[in-house]
Amino acid sequence: MESRLLCCPGCGGPITLHSPATIFVNCLFCKNTLLFDKDWKVFGKVAELPPEITPLQVGTNGTFLNEVLTIIGRRRMRWTDGYWTEWYASFSKGKGAWIAEAQGLWMIAYPVETEMSRGEFEALTVASSVKAAGKQFAVNDIKIAKCLGSEGELPVISSPNEELKSIDASNTNGDFLSLESGQDEHGKSRVSAYVGRYVAFGDFHFKNLRHLDGW
Ligand SMILES: [Zn+2]
């Protein structure tokens, strides 16, 4: 994994970037969030996030399917019925993925290309059928979520109060699809798609975990 050094446009502090996909990062020195849109710019203020009740932290590394990974960021989301956290992992071969825990199950989701327009996305309802990454899925859940804040480096804008629509779909092979509305770094509306599966925590062979009583 090749890292590069960024000079914070807010305070001049050094920020090490670990992923070529990073467009959003927090500065630890001036507590600004920075967005890359042709150049790095100050985007807003960092929202302090509470610690997670998981052993993961930014800096945790591991191996998944024989590829080295490092957790480089997280974002915390809220919806009407609760909260969830997504961890962004950078892989040694340059590809990134989201890792999340839900009700004790772990999942990994990789970004995939999608041709879906915002109109097609908005027209989806529960049980709609969707195709992504050459696979067929059925929608099981649609919710509106708000980003509460982020830490570290992320490939998406993750500013506090950024609202998005999140659509979950799955198929009988155990794959799931996550679709998300949002905007790209130029402020243009876009639909992001991620395809993933459930995995066992042990499959990640994590090291440098946060100490947590009971784990
Ligand atoms: Zn700064």
* Tally of individual domains: 1
- The percent of residues in helical segments reads under 10%
Bound molecules: zinc ion
Mean pLDDT: 91
Structural class: mainly beta
The major beta sheet can be summarized as:
8 strands, antiparallel, barrel
Please give the alpha-carbon distance between the first and last residues.
29 Å
In total, the number of strands is 15
How large a portion of the residues is in β-strands, by DSSP E?
A: over 45%
Rg? 17 Å
Cross-sheet strand order for the largest sheet: 7-8-9-10-15-14-13-12
The SSE string, one letter per element, is EEEEEEEEEEHEEEEE
Unreliable stretches: none
Number of helices: 1
Structure description:
The chain has one domain. The chain is 3% helix and 55% strand. It is built from one helix and 15 strands, in the order ββββββββββαβββββ. An eight-stranded antiparallel β-barrel has the order 7-8-9-10-15-14-13-12. A two-stranded antiparallel sheet has the order 1-2. It binds zinc ion.
